[in-house]
Design goal:
Blueprint: H1 2-17, H2 21-24, H3 48-59, H4 78-94, H5 100-117
Amino acid sequence: MIARIAEVSTTVDEHDALLTDHHQAAESTPRSPASDTADAGQLRYRSVQDWVAGHFSPIYVRPIGGAHRWCAQWWRHAEAIIRLEALWRSWETRRVQPLGMEGWVREQLDHHLPQLMGPQGPFASCTPERHNTDLPDLAVTPAPAGWWQPAPQPREPG
């Protein structure tokens, strides 16, 4: 599991590298909605963890149990990291667009929330008080040699 989380962290780091310098230098302090147009080129939250703690967890509250699951150690679940990272980054993009939140809720949140918090989601074996990741990795059988065509190699700049 530690290796899987390290792999997800590497993927997240690669996505971070794609952010522009003005995004990377943004403040983490939440501002009022009136400031949204003034900071259209900046992130409101500096990390997915800041966004989960400052925005997601206090707003998208569900009664936990039955159809809704949550793990306070969400950052120990590779799938949760990816889904919450996708939600945060798309939220940062859409929050400054006219009617952006309406589309974000419908297209992003409504899609990921049932997957993330559902009884078959990454928190299925957890409770808010107890983290449990005793699920084995999915079994994988390598394809026979020659099954895949090699991906084209990137061209050298020049």
